[in-house]
Specification:
Length: 428
């Protein structure tokens, strides 16, 4: 397969005519597909419907410590549900707080608490640093960036490589500027490029010098157990343990939820941190609520029992997801490989495939797909302020559509990538 940059102008023009014809045919098909968000499919959600049977009008509502889950109590979460998250995150029960249905809510809340009150022992509230900044590994999760934007942080993008964020840059910035208050991390099967942080990255994050004494690593382990190939499960180091070993246990808050394990938006979320940070979080949370939804915690505890139960369930979900990821990857390999117009990583887990097209083409590709009936995540969304400086990254979310829908959508996507690429080469 010739790289398109090696084709003559004449060849490129012929190709453009062919691709444009195919694109116009696509438009006439009247597709209507939404691949913009990483939502589980209904088939995946069905697999966890047993949750509805384990707590009902005929069962007891008592947790393992005898708390009636219908009532107030067990402020930090019921012990039987803590078993699951403690195993998943590698933390002790006193380092864990189970909250409501959404980890994103807790991240928004935690940053808000850091801005308003300070959360690390002895930390000043961040509002006292009006020029505050946050490190944002890119491409990354749009909603993380939205939180720090909302709270008036200047966001500094840091490029990701196959080991996580570029740690030379992270270390240099964190050590040199006390107004840099933290970093967003999705350490396993990151959103969107599926990268898992190497042990060295985790150690360097835990040990690096930070000019800010209240630096916080926001460790969003949203895809902790979301292996597409359970036999090749990737493991990450326990960042809280690494921070303890480095003498700064208060540097990290970990987050996770069952949104993409059980029912999205109707699962259970948790955060974990040092006991000192936990004390401050509890003092603030206790004003906010008397207790979170323990009935849902009980459902999850009874249904999954422990991490092994979760992992067994995740294998069923992986069996649903694998063919969908493969459909997208097959199309990329068949239609785009070797042409020098796109690159991608084959993720081993998580919910996304990250596609880089030729510089300056991502917005155009997403718009062309939309005009032909397929909605993708907005180009730029994977960068702070929605601005991808090279306008090249597109996040593909294969979980929700059916395989036949995906086939059509990804055929269109590849076609648009080719057409935009050819047009770009013709402009040069
Ligand atoms: N964190 C990451 C990295 C995500 O990709 C998502 C959802 O796509 C979330 C958090 C949302 O999690 P929750 O439903 O627990 O708020």
């Amino acid at each position: 397969m010739a790289r398109y940059s090696e084709l003559s102008r004449q060849e490129l023009e012929t190709l453009r005519t062919e691709l444009t014809e195919r694109y116009e045919q696509f438009k006439r098909r009247g597709l209507k597909l939404d691949m913009s968000r990483g939502k589980p499919s209904s088939d995946q959600l069905d697999l966890a419907n047993g949750l509805f049977d384990v707590v009902n009008s005929k069962t007891s509502c008592l947790s393992a410590d005898g708390t009636d889950c219908r009532n107030y109590g067990d402020f930090t979460g019921i012990p039987d549900c803590k078993v699951i998250f403690c195993e998943m995150l590698g933390v002790a029960p006193e380092e864990l707080f189970i909250c409501g249905n959404s980890s994103l809510t807790m991240m928004y809340d935690a940053i808000g608490k850091m801005v308003l009150h300070g959360v690390r022992p002895g930390a000043e509230p961040w509002w006292k640093t009006p020029e505050r900044k946050f490190l944002c590994p890119v491409p990354g999760y749009d909603r993380h960036f939205a939180i720090t934007q909302r709270y008036n942080f200047e966001m500094i993008p840091v490029e990701m490589d196959e080991n996580g964020p570029d740690m030379d840059v992270v270390e240099r910035l964190a050590a040199s500027d006390p107004t840099i208050k933290g970093i967003w991390c999705v350490p396993k099967y990151s959103n969107p490029n599926g990268v898992t942080y190497s042990d060295e990255t985790v150690r360097r994050l835990a040990r690096m010098k930070t000019a800010a004494s209240d630096f916080m690593i926001m460790w969003d382990n949203a895809y902790a157990v979301h292996d597409l190939h359970p036999e090749e499960r990737q493991q990450i180091l326990n960042i809280l343990e690494e921070c303890k070993a480095a003498g700064d246990p208060d540097r990290v808050m970990m987050f996770a939820s069952t949104s993409k394990i059980s029912h999205a938006g109707a699962g259970v979320a948790a955060f974990a941190c040092s006991t000192a940070v936990m004390e401050n979080m509890k003092n603030l949370l206790t004003i906010q609520t008397i207790s979170f939804d323990k009935v849902n915690m009980l459902r999850h505890a009874r249904y999954f029992k422990n991490l092994d139960g979760v992992l067994a369930h995740m294998e069923k979900l992986a069996a649903e997801l694998r063919p969908k990821f493969q459909t997208v990857l097959d199309a990329f390999n068949n239609e785009l490989a070797g042409k020098g117009i796109a690159e991608w990583i084959e993720p081993k887990g998580g919910y996304f495939i990250s596609l880089n097209v030729l510089d300056g083409c991502a917005k155009k590709v997403v718009q062309m797909c939309k005009d032909a009936g397929v909605v993708l995540t907005s180009a730029g969304a994977t960068y702070p302020y929605g601005k991808d400086p090279r306008d090249r990254n597109i996040r593909v979310a294969p979980s929700y559509p059916t395989i036949s829908e995906l086939r059509q959508a990804v055929e269109l996507l590849c076609l648009c990538v080719e057409l935009a690429g050819v047009e770009k080469l013709l402009e040069q």
